[in-house]
Amino acid sequence: MSSFRAAESPAPYEYPQETREKCVKVQYANLEALDISKMEQPEGTAALAKQVLSFINTNGHGFSDEEIRRQYALCRDVFELPLEERRRFACDTAKGDFRGYKERANDRDIVEMYNIPKFTPEHSRPHPQLILDQLDEIKDFSLRIHNNLLLPLLRLFAYVLELDDEDFFVQRHRYEAEGLEYLRYMKYHPRPAATDAAEFGNVWTPGHSDYNTLTFLFHQPVASLQVQTPEGPWRYVRSRPDAVVVNIADALEFFSGGYLKSTIHRVVRPPPDQADRPRLSLIYFARPEAKVTLKPVASPLLRRLGMHDQTEGFTHEVTAEEWARARIAKDHKFRVGEVKSREGEIIAGVSQKLYD
């Protein structure tokens, strides 16, 4: 449990009620539960390695319910600040920069977010006083995600790919190195039901992959997040209070030559009994260091499978920072209506993938 208590702590946060819609309407994906604490046990890593090729929840995450609720309280309060105050900390998504505040743009883009980058010198920047008052607690929360969730999973993926060095990925995700890792507070603003159905097919965020290494999503009981199953249909993700949902993202797919697949996911309008209020999200995006090249690792497993030289069609080497900034900038153009299609090149000959 965190020991931080600022003079003006946020008011308590209460989770929305679980949906009471019948499961025939809200069909959940069958996710694997991965208890990373087992890595400390004999043969634990080998046992867990058998699970990582499925969708995973991470149990034993080491965060108290109180800590997670406090972060959601901050998330809630950030978006209740006056709009002009929020805009003082705007990020420049047109240039591929997600640090700071992004407001919703139009009926197509109904998402607000505030991204707090990792606490390294190159990311020194102003924040609202609300954030500054709790900055030590936010830093502690972020660092423990990096150290206690990300690093064990990176060692597990190194094991899966049969790398000699279990810290191969760890050494490419050093917290102190330059990189675009951050904690995100996020808020979805519901559209009117008729508009949502007629103009957007009740989809709030279209199907996509993330462009980092792993994405950590903390408990949120509003039934809205969906994953695309290997068979094709979309299924809801059940969010458990004792688990963190983990998405594999593009960087890990590139590192594995396509062996480890990015999680394709989207956000849709919640069931009627949850659709009358905004949906908050608490997310951590773990990314490789800025200068790390996104190419397959020297893996015995990939060599046996003939996947060791697959680079997803890149015409030249691309770094993690170049990939992230290009994806952010391209998504910006679609969100604000500068382009009508999400299709087209992102960088180095690789195009946006569509999943709707």
Which tags fit this structure?
alpha+beta, 356 residues, 14 strands, 8-stranded mixed sheet, single chain, Jelly Rolls, globular
Protein described:
InterPro entries: DIOX_N, IPNS-like_FE2OG_OXY, IPNS-like_sf, Iron_ascorbate_oxido_reductase, Oxoglu/Fe-dep_dioxygenase_dom. The protein has 356 residues and is of the alpha+beta class. It has one domain: Jelly Rolls (Sandwich). The protein contains nine helices and 14 strands. It has helices at 44-49, 65-78, 83-87, 129-133, 135-160, 193-200, 250-255, 300-305, 320-335; strands at 32-35, 56-59, 100-102, 111-117, 182-188, 203-208, 214-217, 225-228, 234-236, 243-248, 265-268, 279-286, 345-347, 350-351. The strands form three sheets. The protein has an eight-stranded mixed beta sheet with strand order 1-2-10-7-12-5-4-3. The longest helix has 26 residues, at 135-160. It is globular, with a radius of gyration of 20 Å. It starts with 31 loop residues before the first strand and ends in a 5-residue tail after the last strand.
